[in-house]
Design goal:
A: Heat Shock Protein 90, 5-stranded antiparallel β-sheet, about 35% helix, globular, B: Transcription Regulator spoIIAA, 5-stranded mixed β-sheet, about 55% helix, about 15% strand, HATPase_C_sf (chain A), Anti-sigma regulatory factor (chain A), HATPase_dom (chain A), STAS_dom_sf (chain B)
């Protein structure tokens, strides 16, 4: 996989999210991603960035245009230094939530992207990486 | 503070969301709408989301909350103008917006609300007749 562009955006407050979503849209448009795939990617990102703010106290996002076998895609990394997730398997289940949400955030985001990776360590934080390829595969 | 305007039109309240919402703005709208339903004794709430490019689980929950709260206050809620990409994404996300009435556009949404009120009036008339 080749990284074609890379930038970082800190997320500390809710208003940062609007800017972050707009930037993803620009990147996705740049590689010619369809509107449906763009919407899926941004919705997934919206879920993850909310988790980062709510449970991780904010953090850093990394936005990249990547390419594999000449197919471009957008890779997003969400990194916080919050308390971490006790049971990642449980957190990935539909309907599970420690807060008052619907518990669709993590599993929903996973369904909306092509690649999903989550790493969490108690006391150190959580890092989620997602990729949505241009052709959707 | 930023706010989404709520317009009163006869027995209905109209909301057109023209910006992408962040969580606090959505919560403020929920609160403002319910207060307006009570203050104006509105019978219906129409929310136009045709300019909204993203509905995530939080926003979906707010729409559901508005519908349930309005229902308790005797007002129907209809959400109109959802973009196809948003509908596809919502279902894949796992959110079906159950309990929320939807219509394709503002016109059809108003029609739906009018019918709902019409039904109510008929029911009341019926009740009155049988009472006599």
């Amino acid at each position: 996989m080749i990284v074609l562009s890379k930038e970082k955006l800190p997320i500390q407050k809710e208003q940062d999210v609007v800017l972050f979503r707009n930037r993803i849209k620009e990147l996705a448009t740049k590689i010619g991603m369809s509107l449906v795939n763009q919407t899926k990617l941004i919705t997934a990102a919206s879920e993850l960035v909310r988790n980062m703010l709510r449970y991780g106290g904010g953090g850093i996002t990394q936005l990249e245009i990547v390419s594999r076998n000449s197919i471009p895609g957008v890779r997003l990394v969400f990194k916080d230094e919050g308390p971490g997730i006790k049971d990642v398997t449980l957190a990935m289940k539909d309907g599970y939530s420690t807060g008052k949400s619907l518990g669709l955030g993590l599993p929903g985001a996973k369904r909306l992207v092509n690649e999903f990776d989550i790493k969490s360590e108690i006391g150190k934080g959580t890092t989620v990486t997602i990729i949505r390829w241009k052709n959707g595969l | 503070m930023e706010r989404i305007p709520i317009l009163k039109m006869g027995p209905f309240l109209l909301v057109t969301i023209q910006v992408d919402l962040y969580d606090r703005l959505a919560l403020t709208l929920e609160n403002d709408l319910i207060n307006m339903v009570s203050k104006t004794e509105a019978k219906g709430v129409l929310i136009d989301i045709s300019a909204v490019s993203i509905v995530d689980s939080f926003m979906g929950r707010i729409l559901g909350n508005i519908a349930s709260m309005s229902k308790i206050m005797d007002a129907a809620t209809v959400v109109v103008g959802m973009q196809p990409a948003v509908a596809i994404t919502l279902v894949e996300l796992g959110l079906t917006l159950s309990g929320v009435h939807t219509a394709l556009d503002v016109e059809q949404g108003m029609e739906l609300l009018r019918n709902k009120i019409g039904q109510l009036e008929q029911d009341e008339e019926g009740l009155y007749d049988s009472f006599i």
